[in-house]
Amino acid sequence: MRTTLMGAAALAAALLFPGAVAAADAARGQALAESCAACHGPGGNSQLDLVPSLAGQQPLFLTLQMILFREGIRAFPPMNEAMKGVVDRDIEDLAAYYASLTLEPQPPARDAAKVERGKALSATHHCGSCHLPDYSGQNQVPRIAGQREDFLLHTMLEYQQQKRSGTDTAMNAALYGLSEADLEALAHYLALQR
Fold first, then answer.
1. How far, rounded to the nearest angstrom, does the alpha carbon of residue 108 sit from its chain's CA centroid?
2. CATH number for 181
3. In this predicted model, what pLDDT tens digit does every residue of 98-134 receive, in sequence order?
4. Which terminus of the chain is less hemmed in, N or C, by CB atoms within 10 Å?
5. Quick one: pLDDT at residue 20?
6. Is the domain of 123 the same as that of 175?
7. Nearest-angstrom CA–CA distance, 61 and 67
């Protein structure tokens, strides 16, 4: 219980003081990120299935996710273990480092029908309202443009099946009622965005 309360307090502090993330030390974060490259790839560009690219991601989003992993609020054993005992300053520096990098997307082969379907679904489900019209994200909302297609689909399926929630349940509700084919089209469309 104490750990959860501490995580909630850290989360609240990050939301209330987003400037703290901006003051983080990206160069120090680079040194801390050496072990992260094994999964998240060199320069934060993942080469592994179902592992997200972190390059160019929103720093507050990264900070929050690392806190959620550290506190066990978000369950994914490899990340829970990796973040165990990591102090806030290190988390902020890691987030600053990954946010400073350039995303080098690995777009899937373009499927015109999926692109059109994904674009239409994104418009009707207002994905650009939170993730911004270019899907670059903002604050605690992640950049989804150019993210790995397999990771996007996996994540949306987890939200839809109530296996994952963010800092609120907005994504769970936003994906309600969509078919797996719809989610595949959305993931395909978003992976192709810049």
1. 19
2. 1.10.760.10
3. 999 999 998 899 999 999 999 999 999 999 999 999 9
4. N
5. 47
6. yes
7. 10
* pLDDT at residue 23, rounded to an integer: 78
Please classify residue 43 by burial: count the beta carbons closer than 10 Å to its beta carbon, then call 0-12 exposed, 13-18 middle and 19+ buried.
middle
Q: Does residue 132 sit within a domain?
A: yes
- The pTM of this model reads 0.86
Q: Are residues 94 and 21 in the same domain?
A: yes
Q: Taking a C-beta distance cutoff of 8 angstroms, is the pair 49, 150 a contact?
A: yes
Q: Around Cβ 194, how many Cβ atoms within 10 Å? A: 10
In the structure encoding, which two tokens stand for residue 123, read together? 């418009």
Six-digit token string for 104:
């080098």
Tokens of 45: 């560009």
| Beta bridge mates, 138 | 141
End-of-domain residue from the set 56, 73, 100: 100
pLDDT tens digits, residue range 159-171? 999 888 667 788 9
Domain's final residue, options 67, 100, 133 = 100
Domain that holds residue 34: 2-100
Segment 139-154 mean pLDDT: 97
Regarding whether 71 and 17 lie in a shared domain, the answer is yes
